[in-house]
Amino acid sequence: MYKHALIIGFRNFIRRKTFTLINLLGLAGSMAVGLLIYQFIQFEKSFDIFHPDSDEIYRIVYHSKRGEVDLESGIFGNYGLRDAIQQQVSEVKEVIRVHPQQDGFVFANREKELVFQEDNIWFVDEKFFTVFGFELIGGSAETVLEKKQSVVMTESTAKKYFGRDSALGRQISVNAGWATNTYEVTGIVADPPSNSHMQFDIVFPMKLVLENNRIYNSVDHGWKLDNFVTYIKVAPGSASKIVTEKIDQILVDRKTELLESGINIETSLQNLIDVHLTSDFTRDISTNHGASQNIALFAVIVFFVLLIAWINYINLSTAFSLKRTKELGIRKVLGAHKFQLVGQFVIEAAIYHIISSFIALTLALLLRKYLNGVIGIELEISILYTWEFWVWYVIIMMIGSTVSGLYPSLLVSSFKPVSISQSLKSSGNRSKSQKFLVVFQFTVSLLLASGALLVYRQITYMQNKELGIDAEKILVINGPRAVLELARQGKLEELKNRHQSFKNEVSGYYNVAEISGTSSVPLKGAFWSGNIRKSGGLDNTPFEANIILVDENFLRTYELELVAGSNVRDDMFWLDDGVLINEKAVEALGLISPKEAVSQKIILSVGDTLRVLGVLKDFHWNSIKESQAPFVFGPDYYNAYFTVRLNAEVTSETVKYIRNAYAKFFPRDSFSYYFLDTEFDRQYRSDLQFRNLFFGFTLFAVLVASLGLFALVSFATHLRLKEITIRKVLGATTHSIMVLLSREYILLLIIANLLSAPLVFYFGSDWLENYPYHTSINWTVFLIPGVVLLVVSVFTVGYRIFQAAKASPVSTLRTD
């Protein structure tokens, strides 16, 4: 029986070329898209699972509250917490701190005269490589960070300095102020895999920064500055609630000043494998965040795309079953049972699914390059080598074949042989189920199209939003590091003069409008963050503020607006000479206006009392995807970056002049630069990836839905061919026939619009809440996709009806 069914199935496969082509395109394309999205989802969910015992490793998250009001959450805490946890929390086996270096260091291989500035530098605790599963190519995980003067490099970084020679045991020079020294390369680690939220190039032992950097070894034994991320590894079976309660008690004992002001700090534990998809902090050590809501959305898209393809198959199978009425009638007369007819359709559906699956694999491999280009990752189709994928593959194939073959087979096999043709015609004319399926396809297509338009509008809104900073024609230069050795030698005046001389030299060039030296630049975060409160008593609520060191030209270079008070001056030396704050800081201080803030005294967490000189109008220092934060800008000699505003577009001559001036005053440093507007554009990379993927899937879903509409129109017009012919004979025009038969499908589209609009508004509003600054949902989000789908539908319907209306009446009426 099965052999006979297969033979008939392949015959129908070859005989009905249009039916075969449309079904294969729909099914194979849907499977290919599903395969790629599934691979992408699996990649996103695979972050950090390669670490041994990853389910036992957690990152500490801090939540500050005033009463029941949530203030802020973050991952940066005090370095003194590690020792306290080790002494008081028995459930914790290991504690690892990570301190990312804010400013880069200059590294040099003096033998080969190779000098580079490195920015992706971490300081970590000694057992970092024993807790985390990064592959050490050279060195022992237990001893690579044992010595204070040791350094571990990634494989690619080591090759940059030592080429093909072995870097292990070699010396590397570092010029970076307090860290200036010669270090031994004690370990080579494989580059962190792309599915790791920890991405670093160079690792130093934690003891180096704690013992050598005067900032950390002179402030209350590690309980003032919040610049350390803490990971803990707990004993198997330990309850996270017990661990967090003990950590909370440690903070209660240490953070007495905050408690007295009404601020309470609570902690939670973020599992290592959840970091990538569930992190949304203003400051983080990871830049390759994912979004769990996007993963869920892509999973829903896969389901709907496959469902639309199956609906298309059902519609097409039902439509073309009209041409098999005699075959089915004769088989029933000859004694064929209903289950045999049903089996025939299911087997044919299985044939289509099997062939489509092979085509889908080929399409997926071809489209993989496009997907890699969109997401910026070399994604391999690795799921093909997992047994879980093949289990789900077989299940989906069986469900798809059975469901898509079952409906048309049950419909056809239910009619009596004597009246099978008439029954099919009358049933098709009243087929509410097929109309429902097309309304469903329209609704899903409109949901996706409206969603794609909303994503486009939101990204465009962020790109065009006023930043408060004019990023055009701004060149950012990485400041010198080797020259910071002067600070360690106590030659601060000489260091300041060197920086000022460079700025004076550059400012004299005809294409340079302004130049400023700062400790950080937009999108690079703060120099450091600390708690600030208004002077006058502990009852004043402290809040976290970002501190940036600037010079007198800072406001002119970035074209910032001073709304009250006066600017800092170059003759000022440190924060206690006076600072600038932004409007958000004025609000956080509880002051009524910027004018009231001028001359106000504020207290920094390290104990310094600062005087407010002036107030700046709020501007976006960080990403537009983050809310405005309080900022403090103070004077200092330290220039980690130089910002150059140009009079005209940058030219090679301008860059050459600045490069020569840099080499003149900082001969031991490498020169590197970038453009600020390009950096602002780069922050939207993940959003652009999401938009492009969404657009691609939406376009494909609309295409597949159009095939489904073509199937229904073919079905209906086939049943009404004689009616169309008679209308033509009686004088009806082709236009009037097209309008008459198209009204039904336009009505289905209107119903789909009415169904999709509230869903788009609800889910779209919920998605926009993820952005502090977002566009609004207006009528264009509903109208434009509706009009586009209307045009596509009218073309699809009109083409098929036009073919039927132009057919010869003689040939149509001759056939029964």
Structural class by sheet pairing and helices: alpha+beta
Number of strands: 25
Percentage of residues in helical conformation: 40-55%
Oligomer: single chain
Report the span from N to C terminus. 32 Å
Shape, per Cα inertia axes: elongated
Q: Unreliable stretches, pLDDT < 50, 5 or more residues?
A: 424-430
In DSSP terms (H or I, runs of 4 or more residues), the helix count works out at 27
How confident is the prediction overall: mean pLDDT?
Answer: 81
Give the percentage of residues in beta strands. Answer: 15-25%
Largest sheet: 14 strands, mixed
Specify Rg, calculated over alpha carbons: 34 Å
Q: Explain this structure to me?
A:
This protein is α+β, with helices and mostly antiparallel strands. The protein is 50% helix and 18% strand. The chain has 27 helices and 25 strands. The strands form 3 sheets. Strands 1, 2, 3, 4, 5, 6, 7, 8, 9, 10, 11, 12, 13 and 14 form a 14-stranded mixed β-sheet that branches. α2 packs across α12 (338-375) and α10 packs parallel to α23. The longest helix has 38 residues, at 338-375. The chain is elongated, with a radius of gyration of 34 Å. It starts with a helix and ends with a helix. Residues 424-430 have low confidence and may be disordered.
